[in-house]
Amino acid sequence: MPLPDTMFCAQQIHIPPELPDILKQFTKAAIRTQPADVLQWSAGYFSALSRGDPLPVKDRIEMPVATQKTDTGLTQGMLKVLHKQCGHKQYVELADLEQKWKNLCLPIEKFRAILQLDPCDHKVEWIKFLALGCSMLGGSLNTTMKNLCEILTSDPEGGPARIPFQTFSYVYRYLSKLDSDVHTADTESYLASLQEKVDSRKNVMIGLSDFFFLKRKI
Fold it and tell me: Could you tell me where this protein is found in the cell (predicted)?
């Protein structure tokens, strides 16, 4: 004999008061991030939310939206999300970083390609991985540094994208050493010119206008 249909009334259904806001924020985050695999990304989103970790969410929609079907899926916005999640550490465990990469639905082949540029064992210095990721976006060394500054800066979007000169010079030297076409003497001459510009302002910060202006002069 079939069981009778269970009847529910509104008083029997308990909806946690925080659920509507959680779902609202989740929906807005998914729209901004445009993950290639919503289920994979959702698992990472709620896992981070439950732990109180930074969420895998972009600040805004990137246009055009990158998809794994048309390109690598790696964008400045994706790297910025990873920086929010990892930037508080000097070194990041590769296993943890790989999981965060997967949660953003980025192809694992691209992750391995980045690591091949400067192989390491179990952990990686975060600023170096971020720099290599920026180099994967294409363009010249200066374009790579532009992307890096825009990710690291505390300036509002569209501003000068200033970062500490010490950070800029550290990353620039690191990337230059990996490029056989860039001579050490040229790197040091370039950074010395930038140092003069920074010192003339008695400021430790450097912005996009500084190094792009010098690039035209050199």
Answer: Cell projection, Cilium, Flagellum
Q: Give the 3-state secondary structure of 40-68.
A: HHHHHHHHHHHHCCCCCCCCCCCCCCCCC
Question: What letter does residue 91 receive in the DSSP assignment?
Answer: E
CA atoms within 13 A on the CB side of 100: 22
For the chain, give every domain's residue range: 20-74+90-136, 139-218
Residue 131: name the closest of 146, 153, 110, 112 by CA. Answer: 146
pLDDT in tens, 141-189: 989 999 999 999 999 988 999 999 999 999 999 999 998 888 999 999 9
Whole-structure pTM value: 0.85
CB atoms within 10 A of CB 63: 7
